């Protein structure tokens, strides 16, 4: 015990406020189940695999560790002991009630413990009554306490689940119920506006029975329930046929635009003579309908290549990632990002350098967790083929620390809800830039410059401006589909089948088919800008605006804008087939800059007066939930002509990339407002030893975000003391291309990410990656050789420049 007693002063007893990382090494994906187990420091409560524990000791001199080795043994069950097959009830993968990746095998887990003291690696068995009391208390607290991961998960689940838990409706408490005299029979329902007898919704205010929405593919109803709400504003409706005796049903709130819980459903139904205890479920819920659709012939089967007997594959760069509860968007994005050489160079090849330079808290060091993730994906150490390709315990890594860190304090990515992969990608790039600290920034591979050209149609004079982008958003012009007649015929047949109670064959689905070139051409199309303030006229007029690329990045990310809105403002995803070629030439999108035969619009001499806004219309639009700046644009560009026109403008422009960006009235583009730094943020940054000039510039660059401002100072050391340029490139007629990589406009498809489901907030993501001239499908922990990569159904595409 002598060696142990010499280090007793280091040992701490964890309290409820301490985080215990007992599930995973902070530098690798070693766990207690790894061959060498896991070492937990009795000082910091951080865990380390065998490859890193001695390094940690050498750096910190924290010498005492609890070593955990976990073994699992399969539980052999007789056929009679196996329970019934679990029914799929949720639009998720890897979550309770959703599609499951794991096998049906069950295991027993046994843990063995030892106390290990470095550097001699002297070992003491545990339990052991002869151990010092402080060691016993420390170890027992570690074993019995929730790990840091479990504590965080409980916080995330407090009051919510994973995006599919329905919230109690705010409309239910004081819901108005009219005395219409209606008594709803237990069966025999029919839409009051058409002949549909299914997908019917009972409005809980007036007792009307109307059919539901028509879906994009022609299924569903004829939108009569929606139209009824628009006419009456009666907010709640329950889907007939989904009501059960235990008080459950599909309840939709039109006012809140979501499926909700009505805690007073029993009395609301009783108002119309419906005894909930006598009801039986006779119709599929909304989730069940979508699951059945997707499982039979929708994107789920196609994108996961469910019909093929795919062969699993393993090795470096072929490591799967566990779905941490709707984290498939993160898994797909990170798999694709680590195919880019700059990411591999920065985080994989320099992993040891990053680990050795890490601060005392590697759990919260972004570069450490990126290096850990990259090394985990590319080392091959955690990639193996188990007895079953569905056995998630046999292969892959569990990116818990990375997910917790990248989502920290973010309103969306810190939750267990499904998120949009495109939005996460941009968030990732922002965090990488913030943590580059003068090091090479791997996102430079994607950075390019957009050239915006505006032409005053009255004077034919032009203005060029430039902005940064990291991906190219492409509209989907449905009018350019090559099979429009077939699509219309299919939709008509679906509607007829629905009315007649028939079911269309599973293989009859017809999607609109478009070419990627038509999407690129739509992006390049000029658009008219109303009320453009022309400095040539000193008055408002109409202008033409179009965008080009002034630089071509090493890696081009294409974002197909599939998520849009129906006319009733509900989200929908366009189920389209876009032919994305293996090789792509976008040279025709190259910007030209000011041409010899073009004349620039003159500099502004007199700033026009600020526009007057109809305050009542602005308020009404905001009450509908639209951003203030979008509301201002709607009122301005419809020339204060009323709520209806402003609303129509919003519906036409709601998918624009700059929809909610700050509204700058025409003629005010170059007017600089005086920046006032946040007083508390300024004081805090000054107390850290930075100058007034540095603090003010950083706060200005980060919109007075103190935390980001500090990061900005460290990551912009070279220019933080430079004088601000009077004429930045963003408003110049000449592009500043020195900071961008540039080359030819010919690219080859490297990877694509696909989404399954009707909304970015539900469903599932997978990615296909071309590795060694072979397409591989990464479906969370499953890594398999692709047989028919569905290149036409992707959402995000990664193209690599073809080197001449």
TrEMBL record:
Pfam families the UniProt entry points to: UBA, UCH, zf-UBP, zf-UBP_var
Active site feature: 328, 764
Keyword Metal-binding among record annotations: yes
Polar residues bias: start-end ranges: 728-738
InterPro entries the record matches: Papain-like_cys_pep_sf, Peptidase_C19_UCH, Ub_carboxyl-term_hydrolase, UBA, UBA-like_sf, Ubiquitinyl_hydrolase, UBP13_Znf-UBP_var, USP
Keywords: Hydrolase, Metal-binding, Protease, Repeat, Thiol protease, Ubl conjugation pathway, Zinc, Zinc-finger
Residues noted as binding substrate in the record, renumbered to the chain: 201, 213-216, 252, 254, 257
Binding site for Zn(2+): 191, 194, 211, 224
Start and end residues of each USP domain: 319-802
Name recorded for this polypeptide: Ubiquitin carboxyl-terminal hydrolase
Example GO biological process: proteolysis
Domain UBA, residue spans: 612-653, 676-716
Chain spans, region Disordered: 722-742
Domain UBP-type: start-end pairs: 167-276
Annotated organism of origin: Chironomus riparius
CDD domains with a match to the protein in the record: Peptidase_C19B, UBA1_UBP5_like, UBA2_UBP5
Example GO molecular function: zinc ion binding
Family the entry assigns: Belongs to the peptidase C19 family.
EC id: 3.4.19.12
Catalytic activity: Thiol-dependent hydrolysis of ester, thioester, amide, peptide and isopeptide bonds formed by the C-terminal Gly of ubiquitin (a 76-residue protein attached to proteins as an intracellular targeting signal)
């Amino acid at each position: 015990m002598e060696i142990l007693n010499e280090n007793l002063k280091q040992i701490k007893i964890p309290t409820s406020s301490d985080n215990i990382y007992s599930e995973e090494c902070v530098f690798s994906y070693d766990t207690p189940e790894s061959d060498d187990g896991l070492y937990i420091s009795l000082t910091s409560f951080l865990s380390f695999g065998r490859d890193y524990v001695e390094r940690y000791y050498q750096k910190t001199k924290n010498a005492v560790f609890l070593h955990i080795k976990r073994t699992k043994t399969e539980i052999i069950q007789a056929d009679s002991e196996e329970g019934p097959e679990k029914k799929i009830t949720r639009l998720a993968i890897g979550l309770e009630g959703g599609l499951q990746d794991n096998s049906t095998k069950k295991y027993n887990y046994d843990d063995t413990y030892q106390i290990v003291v470095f550097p001699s690696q002297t070992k003491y068995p545990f339990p052991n009554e002869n151990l010092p009391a402080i060691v016993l208390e420390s170890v027992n607290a570690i074993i019995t306490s929730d790990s840091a991961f479990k504590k965080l998960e409980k916080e995330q689940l407090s009051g919510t689940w994973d995006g599919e838990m329905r919230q109690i409706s705010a409309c239910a408490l004081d819901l108005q119920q009219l005395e219409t005299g209606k008594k709803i029979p237990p069966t025999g329902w029919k839409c009051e506006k058409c002949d549909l007898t299914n997908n019917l919704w009972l409005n809980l205010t007036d007792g009307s029975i109307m059919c539901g929405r028509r879906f994009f593919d022609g299924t569903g109803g004829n939108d009569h329930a929606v139209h009824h709400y628009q006419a009456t504003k009666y907010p709640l409706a329950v889907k007939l046929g989904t009501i059960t005796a235990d008080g459950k049903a599909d309840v939709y709130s039109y006012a809140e635009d979501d499926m909700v819980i009505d805690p007073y459903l029993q009395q609301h139904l009783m108002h119309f003579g419906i005894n909930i205890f006598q009801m039986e479920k006779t119709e599929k819920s909304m989730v069940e309908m979508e699951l059945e659709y997707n499982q039979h012939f929708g994107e789920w089967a196609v994108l996961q290549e469910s019909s093929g007997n795919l062969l699993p594959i393993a090795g470096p760069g072929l490591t799967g990632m566990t779905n941490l509860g709707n984290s498939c968007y993160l898994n797909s994005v990170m798999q694709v990002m680590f195919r880019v050489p700059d990411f591999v160079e920065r985080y994989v090849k320099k992993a040891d350098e990053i680990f050795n330079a890490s601060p005392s808290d590697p759990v919260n060091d972004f570069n450490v967790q990126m290096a850990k993730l990259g090394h985990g994906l590319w080392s091959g150490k955690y990639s193996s083929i188990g007895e079953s390709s569905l056995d998630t315990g046999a292969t892959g890594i569990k990116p818990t620390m990375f997910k917790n860190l990248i989502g920290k304090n973010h309103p969306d990515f810190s939750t267990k809800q499904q998120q949009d992969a495109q939005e996460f990608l941009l968030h990732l790039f922002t965090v990488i830039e913030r943590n580059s600290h003068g090091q090479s920034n791997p996102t430079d591979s994607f950075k390019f410059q957009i050239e915006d050209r505006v032409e005053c149609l009255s004077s034919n004079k032009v203005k060029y401006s430039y902005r940064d982008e990291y991906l190219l958003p492409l509209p989907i012009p449905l009018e350019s589909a090559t099979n429009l007649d077939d699509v219309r015929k299919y939709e008509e047949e679906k509607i007829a089948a629905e009315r007649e109670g028939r079911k269309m064959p599973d293989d009859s689905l017809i999607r609109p088919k478009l070419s990627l070139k038509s999407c690129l051409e739509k992006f390049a199309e000029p658009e008219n800008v109303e009320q453009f303030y022309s400095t040539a006229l000193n008055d408002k007029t109409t202008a033409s605006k179009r965008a080009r690329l002034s630089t071509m990045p090493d890696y081009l990310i294409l974002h197909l804008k599939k998520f849009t809105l129906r006319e009733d403002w509900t989200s929908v995803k366009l189920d389209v087939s876009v032919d994305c070629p293996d090789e792509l030439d976008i040279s025709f999108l190259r910007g030209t800059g000011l041409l010899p035969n073009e004349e620039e619009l003159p500099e502004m001499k007199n700033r026009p007066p600020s526009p007057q806004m109809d305050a009542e219309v602005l308020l009404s639009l905001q009450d509908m939930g639209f951003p203030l700046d979008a509301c201002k644009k709607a009122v301005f560009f419809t020339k204060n002509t009323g709520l209806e026109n402003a609303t129509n403008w919003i519906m036409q422009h709601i998918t624009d990339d700059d929809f909610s960006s700050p509204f700058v009235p025409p003629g005010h583009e170059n007017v600089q407002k005086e920046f006032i730094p946040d007083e508390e943020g300024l004081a805090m940054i000054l107390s850290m030893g930075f100058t007034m000039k540095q603090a003010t510039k950083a706060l200005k660059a980060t919109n007075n975000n103190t935390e980001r401002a500090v990061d900005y100072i460290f990551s912009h050391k070279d220019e933080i003391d430079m004088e601000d340029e009077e004429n930045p490139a963003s408003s110049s007629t000449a592009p500043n291309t020195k900071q961008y990589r540039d080359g030819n406009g010919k690219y080859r498809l490297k990877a694509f990410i696909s989404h399954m489901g009707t909304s970015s907030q539900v469903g599932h993501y997978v990615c296909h990656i071309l590795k060694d001239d072979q397409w591989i499908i990464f479906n969370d922990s499953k890594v398999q050789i692709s047989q028919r990569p569905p290149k036409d159904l992707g959402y995000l595409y990664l193209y690599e420049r073809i080197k001449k």
